[in-house]
Amino acid sequence: MRRKDREITAFRELVDIMERCDVCRIALNDREYPYILPLNFGLRVLDGERVELYFHGAAEGTKYALMDRDPRASFEMDCDHRLVGDVSHGNCTMEYRSVIGQGHIERIPEEEKLQALEILMGHYHMETFPFDRTAVPRTTVFKLVVERMTGKALQKRGGDGDPHPKKAEN
C-alpha cells in the first residue's frame, strides 16, 4: 500500500468498518473483464480471527455461473464518506473508511440457508425478521470465506466540511 499512514491492519478495526458498511461489492472472474456486483451482505466472525460474508439472490444468474467456474473472488466495501473542502487552499478531499480483500465463495446448503439469511438480516439490525418460508427454497445463499483483507481510512481534522465550497468573495 502506497499510503502506509492510511493503512488499517488490526483485525477488530477492519471488522468495525465492515459492520458500518451497507453494501459489499464482489468481483468475479469473467475471462476478459472482472464482473462486479454491489450486494447487501451479512458478516460472521469466527474464532475472533476469520470473517465470512453472506449474500443472497435469485435462484440463477450470471454470478452463479461465474462462481461455479471459479470460486475465487475479491470484495470491497466503504463507508463514512464526507467531502471536506479547504476553501483557503482551493482544494478538497474525501473522508472514508474501506476494506478490500480476497477469498473463495461457497454455496450454502438448503439446511443452512435460514441461519445464513438471519446473519444477513442481523447486519441490518433486523435479527427477528419473519421470513416467508416459502421463498427460502427459491433463494440462493452463498458466502465469501475471507482469506485476506486490508483496510484504509482518511479522517481529516479541520476543513469546513462544506460539500459545495464557495469561492471567497473579493
- Give the SSE string: EHEEEEHEEHE
| Mean pLDDT value | 88
Radius of gyration: 19 Å
Major β-sheet profile:
8 strands, antiparallel
Number of strands: 8
Q: Low-confidence stretches at least 5 residues in length (pLDDT < 50)?
A: 158-170
| SSE-based structural type | alpha+beta
Instruction: Calculate the terminal CA-CA distance, rounded to whole Å.
Output: 42 Å
Overall geometry comes to: globular
Describe this structure in words.
- With 170 residues, the protein is an alpha+beta fold.
- The protein contains three helices and eight strands; from the N terminus they run E-H-E-E-E-E-H-E-E-H-E.
- Strands 1, 2, 3, 4, 5, 6, 7 and 8 form an eight-stranded antiparallel β-sheet that branches.
- The longest helix has 11 residues.
- The protein is globular.
- The termini are far apart.
- The C terminus is likely disordered.
Write a brief structural summary.
This protein is of the alpha+beta class and about 170 residues long. It contains three helices and eight strands; from the N terminus they run βαββββαββαβ. Strands 1, 2, 3, 4, 5, 6, 7 and 8 form an eight-stranded antiparallel beta sheet that branches.
